[in-house]
Structure formats: C-alpha cells, structure tokens
Design brief:
Keywords: Lyase, Metal-binding, Zinc. This protein is mostly beta strands and about 130 residues long. It has a single domain, classed as Metal Binding Protein, Guanine Nucleotide Exchange Factor, Chain A (Beta Complex), CATH 2.170.150. It is about 5% helix and about 40% strand. The longest helix is centred in the N-terminal third of the chain and has 7 residues. It is globular and about 35 Å long.
Amino acid sequence: MIRSGGCLCVGVGYEVTGDPAQPVACHCSQCARTSGNYAVMAAWPASELVLTASESLAWFRSSDSASRGFCTRCGGNLFWREEPEGDKIYVAMGTLDQPTGLRLAGHIFVGSKADYYEIADGLPQKPGW
C-alpha cells in the first residue's frame, strides 16, 4: 500500500509504502513544542519514504538522539528520526492524506504530558518510550 502526505503549503510532499508500526501519541515536551500539543506518529522503515516535493524541507537536531523534519515555509511538523540517522522514519499522522486506515495504539511519555487535558481513551499508557 502507498500512502501520501505533505505539509500545509505543499512545499514538502512524500509517499510511504508498506505498513508502519501502529501510531502512538507522544506526550513528551519536544513533541509538544514542535507541534503545539502532543504528536501522533507512526514509524516506517526509512527506506520506504520517498519525497515527492522537498524544496522547503529542513532538519533540526532537537537533541543528541533525534532530528525533526519540517517545512521552512509553513512550519509543518512532518517527521522525526533517530540520530545518527536511524533506520526508521516517524511520520506525523496529521500530515498523511485521509483515509489512513490506521488506528492509534497507545500513548508514550505520559509522565511529561501537559496538565490541560486527560487521556481517557482506554489505550495503553507508558511513562517513557
């Protein structure tokens, strides 16, 4: 299966093939600061990502172990990857074209979640990774 997606201004577009690991909601402070809230991501093998438009894609090294891919024009939060470059690419679910056919599997870094919302969907919650 091929899924496509991209940022708001279409300066970054992509396709991913195959089936990812089920998406998880990450409540860590880095995801909150890059997305404005928690981020829902699904992991694909990095080799399964093909950029169809990339003129405004940039990577920001957000920590010793992660880089985040975003659009320099619209600010869209698209990807993150482990550093040094890992074998997986984590795709922000909100950037995928609908329908995705995927379902949220759980929550991670719930120990860092903000105080203005509750997690009440009954899915598994982990304090860290």
